[in-house]
Amino acid sequence: MTVSIMNKLIRTLFETLEQPVFSAADIQNIEPNPNVRYALVKRSIKDGDLVQIKRGLYTLCAPLRKQPLNRASLANRLYYPSYVSLEYALSNHGWIPEGVSTVTCATSKNPADFDTPLGRFTYKRIPQAMFFCGVEIVSIDGESALQACPLKALADYVYIHKLEWINREPLIESLRIEEDELNTLSADDFESIQGNYRTAPTVEAFLTGLRKDLKL
After folding, report:
1. Could you read off the pLDDT of 125-183 as tens digits, one per residue?
2. Domain range enclosing 98
3. pLDDT category of residue 4 using cuts at 50, 70 and 90
4. Which of 64, 133, 174, 184 has a CA that sits 20 to 30 A from residue 159's CA?
5. How far apart are alpha carbons 154 and 148 in whole angstroms?
6. Does one domain contain both 41 and 105?
7. pTM of the shown model
8. Of 64, 83, 108, the domain-final residue
9. What is the CATH number of the domain that holds 40?
């Protein structure tokens, strides 16, 4: 679609917003009249120019986005507090060979799942003393996202799947993580999250056992 034949809502969104994801409040700022706004949004969705990710959260269709849409950053906005972790984070880090289509996240709230036009997002409740320790801010396609470091993603994986792993062997055999990746871990990586899973003795046992196995 060319700019000349967009409806006025889509034209203004295209011309004024740089980020690919925006809220209902952004649309309200453009068109304060609720009846007109409802009609424009309904028409835009029907025409395929506007994509409703969930109630109150939108993006333009792919050809109209000025920047690529980063699903990790979107995951942080869909359900907060949260950070990308588990299989999706391990795949992003290049630690597991498989591509992961579902964006897997940790949250301190109740578990939740979102099936959206942009894919499936799943959130697992993982109790921790300090929820964001071991979480880093990464830049993907010009957008920032909160993502677990590799060791924290593994700790979260052990928690969710109720595993009793105490060394590197199941990481290599079950997750097919390379020895070279495990050798990049440092004592600081362990110290940053050990003691954080106080209500999950299997996770603390995993961290202690893996650290001993890696001689860190």
Report:
1. 999 999 999 999 998 877 899 999 999 999 999 999 999 999 999 999 999 999 999 99
2. 71-213
3. very low
4. 184
5. 9
6. no
7. 0.91
8. 64
9. 1.10.10
